[in-house]
Amino acid sequence: MRKYAALLISALLVCLTAGTSAAADAPPRPELAQAAQQAAPDTTMGIMVFDMDSGRQLVNLNRDQQFKTESVVKLMIALDDLDRHGTADSGEIQEMLSRSDDNVADQLWVADGETSIVTDIAARALMTNTVPPADPGWWGNTLTTPTDLSALYQYILLGIPQADRDVILPALAGITPTAADGTDQTFGFPDAAQADGETYAVKQGWAVDDAGVDHLNSTGLLGDRHQYIVALLTSQNSKGMAADSAEVTAAAKVLMQAIPGN
Description:
Elements: H1 5-16, H2 21-25, H3 31-39, E1 44-51, E2 56-61, E3 67-68, H4 74-85, H5 90-98, H6 102-111, H7 115-124, E4 143-144, H8 146-158, H9 162-173, H10 189-196, E5 200-208, E6 213-222, E7 228-237, H11 241-255
Antiparallel strand pairs: 1-2, 1-7, 3-4, 5-6, 6-7
Helix pairs in contact: 1-8, 3-11, 4-5, 4-7, 5-6, 5-9, 10-11
């Protein structure tokens, strides 16, 4: 198993020593948190918008509240498999990420250790409030926070070998409008970024649980250098996928105002 400790230390040093010029261009916008909430009043949400150039949080709301990851955990599954096997499974990993293919996720989850995948990657990426599912058979019930997803994307950008990044980032940038299960996965930041002409690379998550609660997550990277990390984690009493996803997109459009030029 390859060791990422030195890479991760370097990544943290980059974040801590980031210059201040970009910070002037992208000031914190705390007012956008409440504006996003007002755009989706029936939705419980956690928000993080993080500027990699300045190392600052531009927007946050409920940043340490746990939400179900749903398919966003596939990022952790991908990272773990790349660490174990190199790029041998790169085709399957890209399918799992770009089309959010549950069948591939199921196979890699079982083959690579189920819940240990979450605990191992969380430790490496310094995701201190991320925990695996109580039932190992349901990877989507992994719990995480907006803060932890910011840490995960920083780890992807700065803490892993370039060969692994070259598998993950193109898959996130090339998500298909329709997922493997037939779901429209353009809600949230893909629709919002496209409307603003912004470059994006994202991982989405969605599911309705047995209690009728819809969990919709839109996370990823914005900007031509992937310099902005975004995480919008939500839950709401289901009104149907179309109505619920429209609220998430409305909130994401508000948060786009934190990105310079939008």
